[in-house]
UniProtKB/TrEMBL annotation:
Annotated organism of origin: Congregibacter variabilis
Name by which UniProt lists this protein: M1 family metallopeptidase
Taxonomy of the source species: Bacteria, Pseudomonadati, Pseudomonadota, Gammaproteobacteria, Cellvibrionales
Coiled-coil annotated residue ranges, if any: none
PANTHER family for this protein: PROTEASE M1 ZINC METALLOPROTEASE (PTHR11533), PUROMYCIN-SENSITIVE AMINOPEPTIDASE-RELATED (PTHR11533:SF174)
Residues of the Peptidase M1 membrane alanine aminopeptidase domain: 356-506
Enzyme Commission identifier(s): 3.4.11.-
Length: 613
């Protein structure tokens, strides 16, 4: 939510999944018609959360911190695979199940540490038939192994657990389980990007340890509810207890928050897509039955053109050996790997395409296959995710679409914190900074204009795939972590010069460079004033009566002769991210902005029919 500099880091900026609709121009308020009203307790909690105040729905502080630095115990083992078996009981808003964690010891250890919200009970921990001692400590728990596991050896611990998981207050920003229904049939989802997988299953809640060999899920839900999840559907078992079990499996690594389950009265819409690398893969859209025709139309109008765009610009869809998946959710949306949540209600966007669907799909490249190495590098997900909508808008409606998107990004900058901020310690703190979207996208714009098309897009592909020519890559495509330093090194290599001064100035400082200009005595003088007194030798285009002149400011202030009465435009094509007198600084964020977001959250609670205990 929009926040001031001194607000609690518990405040989630209105960002986490719906970029263009959030960070740039505000999320859509057009959702499913529902005459229910949000319970007063929900509204009160939303108001408190918006202001960074404590409220009854507060998470345990450990649980709320996703992606924080690993403890020594956590760093001592590497998760290889998760097998999650879970029964979802919407009538009681509860879950029961188990997680088998297969791991490798990186050093000799006799204890492993996992994370789980204290609201959920741990029933047992087993290694084969041996019951293990469990000790809970805040939002984590320690499992004592029967003997020391030496470095390089593997083991599997199975944790049985259950209870009533945290109910999302305002998903996806304030996450957890989302409960709703459609014509009497349960409709549920999980959305936990800001708060982590430990909200609903035992895991190592750190994106720096993805399960190398993938995940497997067996999700039981009431009959009439179809369950959509990650990877490939391998079967469905009909139960005699009123529940059916849906089996999903993926061989790919996953960030914990990117593992999701979704249940509802869905109809599966399918198509086949011929990928740029010569492989064909399925498109699957799990839509509410009443919206099946809209989903079919959306696949044709948006999903297929979006895939063509991303593959042409970036390279092969990363998970073509499984599926390009989408599911209609009782919340706005989220970039869950191979099963993107979609809640924009099939509304065509102002640029001729569905911006939410496009943004979440962008995260399959920027976030899921290429993952930020540290919370401070979250802009690699969201800056790129935002920027790709501007690039696509340029293709759909021309330059006016591109610059309208970029203007919206500019006016939504906050100037509160650096974009790549080493002080950020967890995912929640990273996403509290809206500028990871807005300023991140503008840095990419300015860098692209400086180094040129070929170098910029080749560097982007290397950031994702480690090659500038990924077109023939076969599956599986390797996941990788990237940092801001990696980005600088790759872009500098492609540009043939060190571009750290561009990236560092924009991302490591809260403010922006200011171009100081003065005109008199037949001359125009320009000079950069840069936060932190950083070196910023950015050349500036000046249009004088339509003729472009380039001023090299690398050695300081420069002047150019200007005829009397000439029309002068500085940076006429808006190539450079710089301070302009059209937005305020962090201190100018207002209570009115906060209230606007409270109003929008409570509208969503009503329109999506969110249900609580």
């Amino acid at each position: 939510m929009i926040h001031t500099a001194n607000q609690s880091t518990k405040v989630r900026a209105l960002l986490s999944s719906c970029l263009i609709v959030t960070a740039l121009s505000g999320c859509s308020n057009q959702m499913a018609s529902n005459t229910a009203t949000a319970p007063p307790a929900v509204i009160a909690a939303l108001e408190a959360a918006a202001r960074g105040e404590s409220h009854p729905d507060d998470l345990h502080p450990d649980t709320a911190r996703s992606g924080k630095a690993m403890t020594a115990l956590q760093a001592a083992f590497d998760v290889k695979h998760y097998t999650l078996s879970l029964k979802v009981m919407p009538d009681t808003r509860s879950i029961e199940g188990s997680v088998a964690v297969n791991f490798e010891a990186l050093s000799a250890l006799d204890t492993i540490q996992l994370d789980l919200d204290p609201k959920l009970d741990i029933y047992s921990a087993m290694l084969g038939s041996t019951e293990l001692k469990v000790r809970r400590e805040g939002g984590s728990f320690m499992v004592t192994l029967p003997s020391t596991l030496e470095a390089g050896n593997h083991s599997t611990v199975t944790v049985a657990y259950g209870g009533k998981p945290h109910v999302a207050l305002a998903p996806p920003w304030f996450g957890g389980f989302v409960w709703s229904e459609v014509n009497g049939t349960p409709w549920f989802a999980t959305a936990v990007q800001g708060d982590g997988c430990d909200l609903w299953w035992p895991c190592k809640d750190n994106f720096a340890d993805k399960p190398d060999n993938g995940v497997e899920l067996a999700i039981s839900a009431p009959k009439g509810v179809k369950v959509a999840s990650v990877g490939v559907l391998t079967g469905m078992d009909e139960g005699d207890d009123g529940f059916d079990t849906w089996h999903w499996r993926s061989r790919h690594p996953y960030s914990g928050y990117a593992v999701a389950i979704n249940g509802g009265p869905f109809e599966l819409i399918e198509a086949e897509y011929a990928g740029i690398n010569g492989s064909s893969y399925p498109i699957q859209f799990w839509a509410l039955e009443e919206n099946a025709d809209k989903a079919r139309a959306l696949v044709d109008s948006d999903v297929i053109p979006d895939l063509e765009f991303f593959e042409r610009i970036l390279g092969p869809y990363p998970w073509g050996d499984e599926k390009a998946g989408f599911v209609e959710t009782p919340h706005l949306g989220m970039e869950h790997q191979t099963i993107n949540g979609y809640g924009e209600q099939y509304k065509r966007g102002r640029y001729g395409f569905d911006g939410l669907l496009h943004h979440e799909l962008a995260h399959e490249w920027f976030g899921n296959v290429m993952t930020h190495a540290r919370p401070e590098d979250a802009w690699l997900h969201e800056g790129y995710g935002a920027y790709m909508q501007a690039v696509y808008a340029e293709e759909t409606v021309g330059a006016i679409g591109y610059y309208d998107q970029m203007y919206g990004a500019y006016t939504n900058n906050e100037h509160c914190l650096p974009v790549a901020n080493p002080a950020v310690e967890d995912a929640g703190e990273a996403f509290d900074n809206r500028d990871i979207y807005t300023k991140g996208s503008w840095m990419l714009h300015s860098l692209r204009r400086y180094i040129g098309e070929e170098a910029f897009w080749a560097g982007t592909r290397r950031v994702i795939y480690d090659t500038a020519e990924p077109w023939s890559l076969s599956y599986p495509i390797q996941s990788r972590y990237r940092s801001t330093e990696d980005f600088i090194a790759i872009m500098s290599d492609e540009a043939g010069e060190d571009v750290s001064w561009i990236v560092e100035t924009y991302l490591r400082e809260a403010g922006m460079p200011e171009l100081i200009s003065s005109r008199g005595d037949g001359k125009l003088s320009l000079e950069w004033s840069v936060p932190g007194d950083r070196d910023f030798p950015m050349p500036v285009d000046v249009s004088i009566d339509g003729k472009i002149h380039v001023l090299d400011l690398s050695s300081g202030a420069q002047s150019i002769e200007v005829p009397k009465g000439a029309r002068v435009l500085v940076d006429p094509d808006s190539k450079i991210l710089r301070s302009l007198p059209i937005i305020g600084d962090c201190s100018e964020q207002t209570d009115e902005q906060i209230q606007n977001n409270i109003d929008r959250f409570t509208r969503m609670a009503k329109d999506f029919g969110w249900q609580r205990d």
